[in-house]
What we know:
Blueprint: H1 7-10, H2 17-21, H3 27-34, H4 41-52, E1 54-55, E2 70-72, E3 75-77, E4 81-83, H5 96-107, E5 111-113, H6 121-127, E6 165-169, H7 175-187, E7 192-196, H8 206-211, H9 222-230, H10 243-251, H11 258-267, E8 272-277, H12 280-288, E9 293-296, H13 310-321, E10 327-330, H14 336-344, E11 349-352, H15 354-386, E12 399-400, H16 409-415, H17 417-425, H18 439-447, H19 474-490, H20 497-503, H21 508-513, E13 524-529, E14 534-539, E15 543-544, H22 546-559, H23 565-575, E16 580-585, E17 594-601, H24 614-626, E18 634-644, E19 650-659, E20 664-674, E21 677-686, H25 690-703, E22 705-706
Helix pairs in contact: 5-15, 12-13, 14-15, 16-17, 17-19, 19-20
Bound molecules: flavin mononucleotide.
Amino acid sequence: MDAADGFQKRYSNIDELAADAKPLLTAQAHGYYSSGSDNEWTLRENSEALSRYRLLPRMCIDVSVVDTSTVLLGQKLSAPILFAPMAQQRLCHPLGELAMARAAAAAGLPYILSTMATSSIQEVAEAVQLPDHSSGSSSSSSSSQGAAPSRLPPASAAAGTDPCLWFQVYVMKRRDVTEWMVRQVHRLGFKALVVTVDAPRLGHREVDDRNKFSLPPHLSLKNLEALTKAAGGTADVQSSGSKFGKHFSDLFDQAVCWDTIAWLKSISPLPLLIKGVLAPDDARRAVELGVDGIILSNHGGRQLNYAPAAVDMLPACAAAVQGRVPLLVDGGISRGTDVLKCLALGASAVLVGRPLLWALTLGGQKGVEEAVGMLKAELELSMALLGTCRVSQLNSSFIIPPPPRPSQPQLRLQSRPRRAVVRVCAKSDPEGNAPPPPPAAAADTQQTPNRPQLPPNPISNPAGVVAYGGRLPPARRLIVSGLTATAVALGGNFLGVTSTLLALDGGKLAASTNLDVLVPVNGSRRCLDTGNGFTFLYPAKWLADQTLYRRYAERIEREAALDPPSLRRERARRQGVPEPAAAFGPAGSTGEENISVVVAPIRPGFSLQKMGAPEEAAARFLRETVAPEGSGRTAQLLGAGSRRDASGELYYQQEFTVKSERFSRRNLSVLAARNGLLYTLNCQSSTERWASNEAAFRKAAASFAILNSGAATADFPDAL
Ligand SMILES: Cc1cc2nc3c(=O)[nH]c(=O)nc-3n(C[C@H](O)[C@H](O)[C@H](O)COP(=O)(O)O)c2cc1C
């Protein structure tokens, strides 16, 4: 079938491709691509989990200019979408990985080549015309590993982007072979490595067993064939049927541990992402080892069955990672709204898998380009309908977590909480303390004695929640903590139970785990912006502030205007309206009453101390910015102070009034500067409304923290 007649005419969405692709594939190939492990619960759960989240659109926002592009690890992408690494792509199209990689380049998106590809690393580099960095050679010349077929026209990358190839690494028992591959991809200009850690052995794919899956004789796992031979081994990669799993086990290292990740980092300067992580503790550990990104994934439901959907682990992992590295996610993503949900929950980008294989089957490179075009168009439309113009605007205020599912056993627990909870926790410790680590964790600690001791994670280890009972007596602590864990596991705020429980310890558990992103605690909700790297609490009933966002949208439109650049810059400078990265206000607000955060670039070497002591800095700010001479405004400083958070990050706080003929306002601002950016949280209301907002404003100011520096702990004195 030719894609030339246009997917967009024949299909309404990329989910529809699967049915038409099936009859074009052998039963073996279709089974291999489509199946999951065991009874495929996780495979089904991937799409179902996504469909349980709801999006909360914002209205009256100028969305005439919507930009889906983003920057990931320094690379500009036309959309926050990557091609997932998938083995054996020539099973569905003669050009397999080559066509797929070229479609990715044309779309301005990264292509992740699998170790288990049916095309060699060199062929793929040639197909997208990456320059070979080895002396005197060019990847466009033919090589011993085979040149790209001559009927491929030159690949053209999307405007403004370079072809972007990443390489997915399965660590092999022969470490020298792995090292050889890693060095080769670096030499050929690949931009990142992705090490997959969720496949120490192949999951049980029952469909493949039944079909006696094998590669047809004309295909082979090109990289393993060439590289195992180069390393002096044999390369029987035609293993079939039930032998496939054994073959995988023979070649791949089942003893991949955290030190393997450190080793991979040590042998390549390329950014390293880890793929297959789901537990927040693992995410945190990976960051501590210096990985450059994390891909939350259950391998498309092909490995451990009953593993959760990666999207459900996003909030907890985002909280664990605290914005230190980008989080990516995959599994079941096929709609623009799926992408939006993942981004709103804290992901920087998503990976798409099977739909691209179906597109390749139906239309080769052109088919994949069309499918990606449809997905990007859906994303753009959904962003507009959601009321967002840029990927960086997406945050937790746009998402509503799944409602509780009535069939959950936890509902029964509501009627008999005491017995049920004791059953959960009593095994571990009647005092309600965290249980000892399970044997596997203990063994792990022994293997790596230098491993830093991490606090127990209450989400990945629900019984560990009992450690967060505050000063409650042990028995109540047990019940509170168990119920909280249960409510959290439900993923929602069942009848307000989660909020109430989380409030019982003064909100400490919620703050330490960022659960208050999902459910209100003590009347506040957390804004966690992992993209810009800050967090703060705002009144739970407040909404994202439409007026401020509208101003932001206007500014984007101005910047996209056809004026010559110098004129545009000058106008933007004169306009001087800083755009908020986050803004919340009461429903129906006119923009006068709000809490907002502005993140603005500053010159290198700037620090708060260079502005002088807090009082001095505040006075200067009022004099030069808030109420300069001739502005018609007067400002009065009410107080200024400073604090440091747990990691030593410095914050300046200033409180002042501003008056003009038209208004009389009171403001509370907190400033922090890091990595060339000035972060300013501003709480503002009319002087008449100040008293009703004061408590919420002080809470927001005290909770404001820039990420990667530990949450703010010290409180400002109530009166400055
Ligand atoms: C046929 C197939 C082969 C795959 N091969 C690999 C692989 O070689 N390496 C890897 O890390 N993940 C592999 N995956 C997992 C994908 O990278 C990705 O995690 C998953 O497909 C995402 O789910 P989706 O297919 O629902 O989009 C494979 C998935 C499929 C469907």
